[in-house]
């Protein structure tokens, strides 16, 4: 027999075998635990039991939920399973026809109950059980198998090719800076972000330097400073302050000094899905941050106010553009 032939696995005993088979089914069916929990929330069962005084029989619950009477036997099966997983409790009688009560888990799902000021505990359940999360999880095997390339920096040669050094201002965990350092190894890259972000950045592989700080106070000196999807969060006044700090951090234009801005420019495409995307992104800024996306005139005004002499749009990237702004 060949030495490397796989050994026949030792078979489980009969008792272990039936136990293993039950475990196999349980693992395969666990998705239904999430879905029945979701269903309980969508039907409003915790609030209905609460409104019925904290305990409810099946007919009371069926009526309070305004379900068709024919659904009552199915509701019994749903309640039995939810009680077995700790969402509800059987306070009287048996699990199929008894009286159901709330557990600590279901009591935080009653409408209007606040936990740490948040009255919508159900939102997290509904989001995490939505098809988006479920579909993403279904792609896990593919993700493991694929050799995903390191993301390449979106704007390329002409922007970074001639640089000696670059500060990615508000560069987060350094993902973009590391990609630039990989694609352009001659560029010394520094990432500036707030201390709470830099402290959680992945351990440095030596390709970038991390600096914790506040861009309104100081930006590490380098030949170019990059602001990628940063300025649209800030008012015009604050953008001028940020850009003035960038200007202090870079050399004169004759020494290659420039600020690289990657952001939305409304109207860079005058119709179709890109313009619609830009206008929707403007609404997003309004609704969430009371800030805005800008058209080219808005950008030009800000650059002038911050003391820059000239700018160019060097590349269009879908809804965004890459600006080079010169001192
Ligand atoms: C939208 S994210 C930037 C995205 C990043 N440039 C990218 O391309 O993925 C905004 C970043 O700005 C950082 N930030 C906010 N205020 C800051 C400040 N005053 N100084 C430095 N970084 C700041 C935040 O911590 C956050 O990481």
TrEMBL record:
Domain O-methyltransferase C-terminal: 160-309
Pfam families: Dimerisation (PF08100), Methyltransf_2 (PF00891)
GO BP terms in the entry: methylation
Calcium listed as a keyword: no
Keyword tags: Methyltransferase, S-adenosyl-L-methionine, Transferase
Catalytic residue positions: 232 (proton acceptor)
A GO molecular function held by the record: O-methyltransferase activity
Annotated InterPro entries: COMT-like, COMT_C, COMT_dimerisation, SAM-dependent_MTases_sf, WH-like_DNA-bd_sf, WH_DNA-bd_sf
Domain O-methyltransferase dimerisation: 25-110
Protein name: O-methyltransferase domain-containing protein
Organism of this sequence: Oryza brachyantha
Phylogenetic placement of the source organism: Eukaryota, Viridiplantae, Streptophyta, Embryophyta, Tracheophyta
